[in-house]
Specification:
Strand content: 5-15%
Structural class: alpha/beta
CATH topology of the largest domain: Alkaline Phosphatase, subunit A
Largest sheet: 7 strands, mixed
Order of helices and strands: EHEEHHHEHEEEHEHEEEHEEEHEHH
Number of helices: 11
CATH class of the largest domain: Alpha Beta
Length: about 450
């Protein structure tokens, strides 16, 4: 007998490439995102959500596995030669759901390798996922298929990721195929608060970034309209999140809040209470256990994440929910191995830079030029300039009071008044690393991870 759609709901997982908290439902004052606001009002908005690593492939490997990248092995970009550990191949969300009788589809980037280990029934070859009307059209084809099977569809929008302009520079297309119809003028939005440089080039890039978010919002509206048109809105669990924060210095590729923290919305008819803003800490590693729970499947392995079901009925965190949220970093491209571990509670944040003094991280991401302002006379003695110097050459430990300093400008690791909290977070981080069997607790783990970078570089075409 075919499974009931109510017993096994459809699943729509939506990701936005490089989206932080730049949505009006998260209180951003410079943009209106009515479609995502509507989705939030119909389900649960999680106030504090982390990806596992602020780099596309690593983050997505956790969305598919329920594990952190230090276990999946996808510790850097797929297009830079990194890939899953052999032991993790085939252990992914679409594979699990096919076993449960689901048909599976994906639109846009997979970005975790090897591709062949992900069993998608529907995957159009040529896709422009900035063309949000085309995305909705492809989704409609999948949704209209006559079958009694429930579905899993992952839709991955390119926006708000950078693109290469004709002059070779990176930027954000203010319009694409006529969307948005009324883009924000290029000098409207100030530079990022987490950078601290309000310069014309910063305002122009940030303003156009907001235009890409507006286009994303239009796309999500079109997609959800197709879901409703297909008559499957009430039988579908919808999860929306960014794969990490904005592609700007001190955002993407870091363990700062602007890199790890993303919007996370869940609409689960009959389970999630509508209109809740939840204080529960959630992670992208929670996606797999949540969806398998929805499908009525027993857990096939021990996940690093947990089902969000208990957190979908109340604004407070459920009893015995996680007290801390953890993120990590290894590689982006195949160079600059600079591993980090970060942990936060409801106010304080600790970052451990594991190779401080022995290596340096990449200090410019996706062509963002704003780091140069740190050395100009205008900013030289500012907290922003000091934060950029720390970003380029971090100390072993960083500690921030996120209530007093949400942009993480003032490292208070040597503040004796915080000694007890620092020790608490150090111990909690160590406990988490042991619990998740972090390979970098041992010297040979560093050697193996360095070799991952060397092997990735060899896989890249010459």
């Amino acid at each position: 007998m075919a499974p009931s759609l109510l017993a096994k709901p459809n699943v729509l997982l939506i990701t936005a490439d490089d989206l932080g908290l730049q949505l009006s439902c998260y209180g951003d004052p410079y943009i209106q995102t009515p479609h995502l606001d509507q989705l939030a009002s119909e389900g649960v908005l999680f106030r504090t959500a982390y990806v596992t690593q602020a780099s596309c492939s690593s983050s997505r490997s956790s969305m598919f596995s329920g594990l952190y990248p230090h276990t999946t092995g996808q510790v850097g970009l797929a297009n830079a030669g990194f890939q899953l550990n052999p032991s993790q191949i085939g252990k992914n969300l679409p594979a699990y759901l096919k076993e449960a009788g689901y048909r599976t589809g994906i639109l846009g980037k997979l970005h975790v390798t090897p591709d062949a280990s992900f069993p998608f029934d529907f995957r159009p070859k040529k896709q422009d996922t900035r063309d949000v009307k085309a995305v909705a059209g492809n989704a409609a084809k999948f949704l209209s298929e006559e079958t009694e099977k429930p579905f899993f569809l992952m839709v991955n929008y390119s926006d708000p990721h950078v693109w290469k302009e004709k002059n070779g520079h990176s930027g954000f297309p203010p319009t694409w195929k006529g969307i948005p119809e009324n883009p924000i003028p290029p000098d409207t939005v100030p530079g990022w608060d987490f950078q601290g440089f309000d310069e014309p080039i910063a305002r122009r890039r940030v303003s156009n970034y907001y235009n890409t978010v507006m286009r994303l919002d239009t796309g999500v509206g079109l997609l959800l309209a197709e879901l409703k048109k297909a008559g499957k809105e009430k039988d579908t669990l919808v999860v929306f999140l960014g794969d990490h924060g904005p592609p700007f210095n001190r955002g993407k590729t870091t363990c700062y809040e602007a890199g790890l923290r993303v919007p996370f919305l869940v609409r689960w008819p009959g389970v999630a209470k509508a209109g809740i803003e939840s204080e529960a800490f959630v992670s992208a590693a929670d996606i797999v256990p949540t969806i398998l729970d929805a499908a009525g499947m027993e857990s096939p392995r021990q996940f690093h994440g947990a089902s969000l079901r208990p957190a979908l009925r109340m604004s407070e965190a459920p009893e015995n929910w996680r007290r801390y949220l953890v993120g990590e970093f290894h590689y982006h491209g195949a160079q600059a191995f600079f591993p980090r571990r970060a942990i936060r509670d409801d106010r304080y944040k600790l970052i451990h830079n594991l190779l401080a003094g022995k290596s340096k991280p990449i200090n410019r991401v996706d062509g963002d030029p704003t780091g140069k302002f740190a050395e100009e006379d205008k900013y030289k003695s500012t907290a922003a300039a000091e934060a950029f110097r720390r970003y380029s050459d971090p100390p072993e430990w960083e500690f921030y009071d996120l209530e007093a300093d949400p942009v993480e400008f003032e490292n208070r690791i040597d503040d004796s008044s915080h000694r007890e909290k620092i020790e608490e977070l150090k111990q909690a981080l160590l406990d988490w690393r042991k619990e998740t069997k972090d390979p970098l607790l041992e010297k040979d783990g560093f050697d193996r991870f360095r070799k991952k970078g060397e092997d990735a570089a060899k896989r890249m075409p010459r």
